[in-house]
Amino acid sequence: MKIKQSISGLAAAISFGLCASVQATELEVTHWWTSGGEAAAVSEFAKAFDATGNKWVDGAIAGSGGTARPIIISRILGGDPMGATQLNHGRQAEELIEEGLLTDLTDLADKEGWRDFVNPSSLLDACTLDGRIYCAPVNIHSGQWLWLSHGAFKEAGIDVPQNWAEFVAAAPQLAEAGILPLAMGQQGWQQNLAFGTITVAVAGMEAWTEVSVNKNAEVAAGPVYKEVFEAAAAARELAKGSNVQDWNMATNLVITDKAGGQIMGDWAQGEFQVAGQVAGEDYTCLPGLGVNEILDTGGDAFYFPVVDDEETQKAQMELASLLVSPKVQVDFNLKKGSLPIRGDIDLSTANDCMQKGLKILAAGNVLPSGDMALSPDTQTQIEDLMAEFWSTDMSAADAQASYAAIIEDAE
Amino acid sequence: MILTVLVVFVGGTTWTVVHSFTKSKLLPKLNFVGLDQYERLWGTRRWLVSIENLAMYGALSLIFTLVIGFTLAALLDRKIRGEAVFRTIFLYPFALSFIVTGLAWQWILNPDLGVQQVVRDLGWTTFELNPLNNPETVMYGILVAGLWQGTGLIMVIMLAGLRGIDEDIWKAARVDGIGTTKTYVRIIIPMMRPVFVTALVLIASGIIKLYDLVVALTNGGPGLSSEVPAKYVINYMFRAQNLGQGFAASTMMLVSVAIILIPWAFLEFGGKKRG
What we know:
The structure holds 2 protein chains of 2 kinds. Chain A is of the alpha/beta class.
């Protein structure tokens, strides 16, 4: 009797499970958006996807992309693919595509005309290999921002700087008031990001392109980059005493007026928003350090590993189409503080900082991101160098020589 | 059984070594480039720093673990009251993983939360204990955490060894009027040779695979000052998507282990044959 009951119970459970799977295909989505602002943004995707009758199974991986990427890649390689995954588009997925492990989205992209509305078009180029499209870009992130705390400068009794030179000049007064001039998380990628930002601001677009895209080691060893390394060494002095590790901890120093500023990508904006701060009133943002108003166009994209199950394939396509759709783009990017990938949507509700970014984007002052130009191998080498440079007394000249050597070997 | 050993150990090792001569990126491919990966490896600051750190950590950890472990065991062996309590206290850290150990010590050594702040609150305001944020001292911070975690086990092994010594030896030593310390150094320790060998192997394997403690404590920072070889391997294999470089580094780790192990094995087995 008992056995019979439990068997029928089991059968009911199974048939229920089957029914459920017919109605709603579960799609596991992995990503590394775990800070407060990021989690709020990703839940917009989940909500929109659930509304289509499918089910978003959240596979957030804590830690930065550096932690999450190996996990994601080994799952795809190991034959346990998720339904969809975040990656930074660029050269990270190159080999996975060559091995045929990622789904070709070209048909969907052609049908919906992604080429027509994705702006800047370099985003879609970064998803393209041999003329086929393999990823859906969801946002544009740029690293070249300086975030300044109004409260900190008020306490030191000085005006909020309008560019990098003013900021450096104001630093002694900040230090006198017991405020750390520059907050800096002690992780290689953050130090690398700050360096990259200083590079674009000091060296300008031409020299940057020559080095990062054309891998010209002579320019990297030359006088223009000498100035870059000297400026970075000066920034290193300003960041002395910053003992935090994670980027959002460093941003928090700026939010709580304990630090004057931070060089960080526009994702920092989400943290300001969660803390209830208003752009232009509580904090100021200076794209390109207020010197060269140029942004890179890195960002996040979703890739869809190849799976056998047809239902899942259908859900993957639905998700891909949803990610680039106008309404989801607006909802997501407002929360995330990043710029949308479409040039044709209305973002008048965006705040001060995003408007600045949109203007630069519209003017076409964009660079490809480091992720697109350099292989992960070269990136790691530069990060290692930067980790050493920022935390020791390594001289600017030594650092420049090592940097030029890395660029020379880069592919 | 033999098949498993052959496939997993010999096969896996050979595969890794072979691929270390290729320029495999994200996926292993057989496009040979000779010794390029090794040349690059030995020209990389980070790798050199890693080797230096491991050598320093290894030497100090070996000495201190043995000395502290044996001393504690000898003290417990003096038939003191509450032996079980002390034994439990000293062995407890070993029950924790390196990750937990690392996190706990990260807080203990954090200047704003840990020991430094507590001592300052007690009135000694200039007290400074901030090893983890200083490139010069960070490895010592890691060493302290490693010792805290590992000595308990060595102590217990030593204690077992001490208990295995015949009471008559002690009586004979006493009759001959030999002091306690001298008895330990001259008679007991030589008798415990097998125990020391076991302890040595355990400590050495712990040193070579040092990885998770560093990741939890400092993640290699500040800068590159607490990087270790195992971390280099993982980073280059997975984060930098450069398998060839990672394989080259892990092959070097294997070679260094072999350099230490092979002469030792010869001595051990050679000795047995003679005896």
